[in-house]
Amino acid sequence: MNQIVSKTVVSELAPTGVLRAGINMSNGLLVTGLSSSGDPQGVAPDMAAEIAARLGVPVTYVKFERPSKLADAAGTNAWDIGLIGAEPARAEKIDFTPAYCEIEATYLVPANSPFQTPAEVDRPGVRIAVRRGAAYDLWLTRNIKHATVLRSDSADGPLNQFISQGLEALASLRQQLLKDVAKVPGARILPGNFTTVQQAIGTEKKNAAGAAFLRDFVAEAKRSGLVARLIEKHHVVGLSVAP
Fold first, then answer.
1. What is the model's pTM?
2. Contacts of the segment 114-118: beta carbons below 8 A, 24+ positions apart
3. Do 231 and 111 fall within a single domain?
4. Which domain does 114 fall in, by range?
5. What is the DSSP letter of 170?
6. 124 and 45, same structural domain?
7. Are residues 126 and 74 in the same domain?
8. pLDDT digit string, tens, across residues 155-178
9. What is the per-residue pLDDT across 14-64, written as a single tens digit (0 to 9) for each?
10. Strand pairing of 195-204 and 101-109?
11. What is the rounded CA–CA span in Å between residue 176 and residue 125?
């Protein structure tokens, strides 16, 4: 992607002369560490840094403890681009690129569970624990018709609730569930997924030229192998380049 970036694009995406990149710090697949100065490290920060390099401006990271807070900050001049899951509810305020990578979301179920596939979980009487405001929580909100979804605000809340209340399912990203399953004797992770979280890059809807630039950047980043190289660089398991 060697195109000349217009002044309009730069002024839309970096109006302060710095690209302020909103980063979801709770996604351990996209943020895998911190630098000595406290900046996030991982696939998402590297994508933001590459965008800043092509704009010819420095990058600064605006850290959010969960994706819902990043999305809620849209339109408040807190960030210029946001790297989170693209969801219809968020797209009301944010213009998203196509996904650059995707993550499977599925269920953890207890030892005595009759469920064999994610589709079987949506039944009356079933209680599902989930992190409030996560992209997969938004999917559950739109799609679960019979089960009851119980939401927690803290990172450990859903697992603690699943254990303490003897719930029928815990919804999360597969990579997180691979850690959680070791804490629940006999529990198992259902094969397949109920959704894949589409990780994308967004900007305010008013930034038409900037949004077009970001779409072109993501397409090129996938086509050139940049996204694949970043996944390999950070040794991430459970993250796939989006088709």
1. 0.81
2. 115/168, 115/169, 115/190, 116/190, 116/191, 117/190, 117/191, 117/192, 118/190, 118/192, 118/193, 118/194
3. no
4. 102-195
5. E
6. no
7. no
8. 899 999 999 999 999 999 998 999
9. 999 999 999 999 898 999 999 999 999 999 999 999 999 999 999 999 999
10. antiparallel
11. 25
